[in-house]
Amino acid sequence: MVRIERSAVAKWRARLRKAWGDHVYRSSESVVMECRREWIRAGVGTAPGLSFVTVTDAADLPPLCAWLAPRAAAFADMCRAGKVGLFVLRDGAAVGCAWLALSDHHDRGAREFYRLAPGEAYHYCWLVEPAERPRGGALALARYALHVMRDMGIERQFGVIDRDNRASYQIQRHFGYRECGVRVRHFHFFHRRWTRFSTYTGTLGLHHTVTGQRAR
Asked: Could you give the count of Cα atoms lying within 13 Å of 9 in the half-sphere of its Cβ?
């Protein structure tokens, strides 16, 4: 009986925390990761059964898996805004994607603005179906994106990684990315969102190591 009561209390606490974060206040902290052409460690190879496509026109978007399908309209808007979509497909349906901005990127919803110089690319919206991640889809997509950007003549690419997102942080480090000393903090308060940028020296790393200690 005591175990059941504790379990019920834990569930209600989790629900209250989620409701607070969804409707009242939450914050997150990210770092900007960059990779210059001479740092890239893309390698070769891919996971069996995967194919890839690069899209610049909404009419050329591939079929989307059920997990990505709700974003179809947003993807079409990205194409019309001049963004480049990189998709990884299994059995003819996209199971993951990443998007590139090749000119100044302004996200009005997140209140973010990233200025790009010639030869730079900003990558964002990395999404891989959860069932595909242990099958190598995320690594394969990252490797494909690096090859595409190198073929485009991109000298520097960068993106924003949440410090709680261990998988994405480690994948980017694996391929040669480094922190470039820019911290991004997102704040949500009663459905309003704003972003603050600051600089730092050294490496912030992940919020927590495997043992749960803060990484610095």
From this structure: 6
Other CB atoms within 10 Å distance of the CB of residue 178: 14
Residue-wise pLDDT for 41-65, tens only, equals: 988 766 789 999 999 999 999 999 9
Contact, 158 vs 184, CB < 8 A?
A: no
Q: How many CB atoms lie within 10 A of CB 13?
A: 10
Which pLDDT tens digit goes with each residue over 131-158? 998 898 999 999 999 999 999 999 999 9
CA distance 191 to 22: 8
Give the sign of the dihedral formed by CA 130, CA 131, CA 132, CA 138. Answer: positive
DSSP 212: S
Asked whether the beta carbons of 88 and 141 are under 8 A apart, the reply is yes
Helix (H, G, I), strand (E, B) or coil at 146: helix
Please give, one letter per residue, the 3-state secondary structure of 69-127: HHHHHHHHHHHHCCCEEEEEEECCEEEEEEEEECCCEEECCCCEEECCCCCEEEEEEEE
Decide: pTM greater than 0.90: no
The angle at the Cα of 77, spanning 172 to 156, to the nearest 5 degrees, equals: 30
**Cβ(184)–Cβ(193) below 8 Å:** no
3-state secondary structure of 167: helix
Question: Which tokens sit at 174?
Answer: 């694996």
Rounded CA-CA distance 69/84 in Å is 18
Among candidates 99, 98, 100, 96, which has minimal Cα distance to 67?
Answer: 96
